[in-house]
Amino acid sequence: MLGYEGPNDIPSYNVLQREFRELSEGNDIDLDAFKDAVTRTVYAVFRAGVVPPDAIKESYSFGAVAPPLNEKSVSRETKKEELRNWVRLLLDHTTDPLTFGRTTEKVDHDMRAFIGALATSALFDCGLEEMKDVCDWDYPRENIPSGGWLHNYVPERVPSEYDLRDFTPDADRASIPSIDAQFDAVHTRTLALAKEFGFWSRSDPLNIGADMFRIDWTGDSLEATIGRPPKADNDAVTEQWTFLVAGGIDTESRFVLGGRLVATLYDYPTALAEILSNTFDTVDIDSIFIDSEIIGGELIETVRRFAGDDWVISAPDHTIIKGLRRLTPSNCIGFAQDVKWNVEPKPNVVTYPYNSDDPDLVEIDPEKVLTEEIQHEEDGEKVRVPLATGDEGDTRVQGPLVPDDAIPMLTEAFSDLAAQDGVGINKHATHATYLTDRSLRYRSGAGVRDEYIQRWAIEPTIGQIVHNFMPHIKGKDPKQRLYGMHIAILFYNWHTMINRCLSPRGLRLDVTDTQLLQAIRDVAFDPVDYDAFWSE
Q1: Superkingdom of the source (predicted)?
Q2: Residues 6 or more apart from 335 whose CB is under 8 A from it?
């Protein structure tokens, strides 16, 4: 879970102790957050099979449960109650902004019961209409919402300027906040609670990945769905519900910041900006990594707003990208500055070989790529090398550099460029290409490639949201689809926190998604006296 290949690769305790002492003396970080992070790391190391020194065992009370941290020594009933305690804490701290705009006289259940119904739907993959018949085997039937509540209660998406971050149930508001506004507040509260537990800080910010996921829709085309082009001549166009999520990709901090239903691919930059804006005051962002979709100037401007120059986007297969790949020799990293991309300032492009042994770094002048000629070629054909030959002295070095830091121009590195392996071929299958504002004079090409690979961590996160926590909502109402997506993100974030923090009463839990969903419905349909719980 720590990202190390094995126990021998983990830094020694002496190394960690020295780093902590230097940080303490420098006083440049939030020491409370650092200590929380160290605690999670110690437990994560133990889960990875590393036996800590005796001093660590004593310091972290590993002997409180014998043998150390052996869950078999904790009764099943204790674990179940501690998971219920977690659910109670999270319900109390995160869900107040959720409202249907109805007074308690107009509803038979509180919001916890509705959250329990959605958890049950995800747990059993059943529609809400079946809820009473599924759950009354275990809980009083009157505690379970009837099936039509989601259709009747989920409000229309009313635009609202109401700030829900300081929301209380008694707050006076002129209209019902939109579903996105309500859940933006809920996700922010969840992330704020995680930050209190020390999951990140300004000295240890999050790396963020963003990606879309799609759910097939077999009905007629809707304004809220996007048609997927057929993959073959005999395929029909498939409509899909398309959602965007953004979240942490670091191993121990994979919280989702939020999500949006995307009605057109051109809404991607605006949707991402809304998610990041909502959590900007709560989450400290280091870098942003994005897969290739529609990568226009608006998206680049969006990531610059939140990550400065520390962003990487997988480049789509446009003409200029094909040209830069053709000019990059097989065992080289190509770096092009100021590539035209319908945005100012222009981004840089890095072309990196997938499988290469210590590749060299060369700089390519993008203005010397003959895009018109490349555009009309068949892949695999050799091309006339599209470079001017009378200006080899132009290295385009910007700013004062140590000589060893300078990147040689392509024409300087190879006297006969056309003869180099791979030149003149569009190496889509062998080279990855990225847009970025990073300068490789200070960050290596391997760093761009290796860090971008971490973005793939958002994909298993999406898999859990869709397959483990998504309620069974199959209708054509976009409001219900949106509600289901947000509640699945909420359940996912709860699961992430529970498995990485001590429980409210100090027990480390390792629960599955099904166990969490069961605990949510147990708390919702068989409630305890909350005041009594928190007064203990």
Answers
A1: Archaea
A2: 348, 349, 350, 351, 361, 362, 363, 364, 407, 440, 445
Using alpha carbons, list the distances in angstroms from residue 208 to 32, 253, 391.
23, 10, 41
State residue 93's pLDDT score.
Answer: 96
Nearest Cα to 112, choosing from 132, 128, 95? 95
Sign of CA dihedral 124, 129, 130, 136: positive
* Strand 348-353 relative to strand 311-314, pairing: unpaired
What is the Cα–Cα distance from 2 to 522, expressed in whole angstroms? Answer: 33
| Buried-state track 325-343, b at ≥16 Cβ within 10 A, e below 16 | bbbbbbebbbbbbbbebeb
Note the pLDDT of residue 374. 44
Tell me what the pLDDT averaged over the chain comes to.
80
- pLDDT of 425-455, one tens digit each? 777 778 899 999 998 865 578 788 888 999 9
Q: How far is residue 68's CA from residue 508's CA, in Å, rounded to a whole number?
A: 12
Q: Which residue has the higher pLDDT, 406 or 120?
A: 120
CA angle 464, 113, 462 (to 5 degrees): 10
| pLDDT, tens only, 113-167 | 999 999 999 999 998 888 888 888 989 888 888 877 777 777 544 444 444 444 4
CA angle 363, 317, 289 (to 5 degrees): 75
Contact 156, 179 (CB under 8 A): no
- What is the Rg, in whole angstroms, of the alpha carbon atoms belonging to the chain? 27
171-180, 280-289, 318-327, range with the lowest pLDDT: 171-180
- pTM beyond cutoff 0.70: yes
Contact 361, 445 (CB under 8 A): yes
Q: What does DSSP assign to residue 479? A: H
Closest CA to 31 of 41, 42, 23: 23
Residue 156 burial (CB count, 10 A): 9
Element (H, E) at 489: helix 478-498
Q: Which two tokens stand for residue 13?
A: 């305790």
> Measured at the alpha carbon of residue 503, what is the angle toward residues 500 and 505, in degrees to the nearest 5?
155
For residue 227, list its beta bridge partners: 239
Q: Which residue has the higher pLDDT, 5 or 164?
A: 5
Half-sphere exposure of 76 (CA within 13 A, CB side): 1
Concatenating the DSSP letter of every residue in 32-88 gives: HHHHHHHHHHHHHHHHTTPPPPHHHHHHTTGGGSTTTT-GGGS-HHHHHHHHHHHHH
User: What residue type is assigned to position 512 of the chain?
Assistant: T
- Report residue 49's pLDDT band, with 50, 70 and 90 as the boundaries: low
Side-chain-facing half-sphere of 66: CA atoms under 13 Å: 2
Round to whole Å and give the CA distance between 36 and 197: 7
348: tokens are: 């840089």
* Residue pointed to by tokens 């480049």: 315
Q: Is 335 in contact with 361 (CB distance < 8 Å)?
A: yes
